[in-house]
Design a protein that fits this description.
The chain is mainly alpha-helical. It contains 5 helices and no strands. The protein has helices spanning 2-29, 39-64, 74-96, 104-119, 134-142. α1 (2-29) runs antiparallel to α2. The longest helix has 28 residues, at 2-29.
Length: 149
């Protein structure tokens, strides 16, 4: 349950983060903000939304971290956050910014980064689980540079 709650909080956090970073562009398009709206107002609104992000992000990381009894290593938390960010941003772009089409190169980039996420949990031979070493150790293993003692 702790692992799922961590992931759910990271998803909620990323929704707030994406809106804090890019939502002002949509609000300007909707005429909530205009080109005459002072930049400090837009920044303060974004910071307010980012505060909501942190109210989910910090508890997710604290409860999900293995050092606090959670299910994930620090690297795994970061990988989850990055994968969630890509998914949330893609959905945000498609839903809120209609007219921003997805192209083949966007899919290619997602496919390119996916092995990193998978390699955070990959099982290597000799019964050793390699957590939090990710793609670098996977490449080292493939090139016979990784040594098990």
């Amino acid at each position: 349950m702790n692992a799922w709650l961590t992931v759910i909080l990271l998803v909620i956090s990323n929704i707030f983060m994406t809106f804090a970073w890019y939502g002002h562009l949509k609000l300007q398009e909707m005429k909530v903000f205009t080109s005459n709206t002072p930049l400090y107002v837009v920044i303060l609104v974004s910071w307010g939304i980012a505060l909501l992000e942190y109210t989910c992000q910090v508890p997710a990381n604290r409860m999900g971290f293995q050092g606090n009894g959670g299910a994930f290593s620090l690297m795994q938390l970061k990988v989850i956050q990055e994968v969630v960010t890509l998914i949330v941003f893609t959905l945000f772009t498609v839903v809120f910014f209609k007219g921003e089409p997805l192209h083949w190169n966007h899919l290619a980039a997602f496919v390119w980064f996916s092995p990193y996420g998978l390699c955070s949990w990959i099982e290597f031979p000799h019964g050793k689980m390699v957590y939090s070493r990710g793609f670098v150790n996977f490449v080292k293993y493939l090139t016979n540079q990784m040594h098990y003692t």
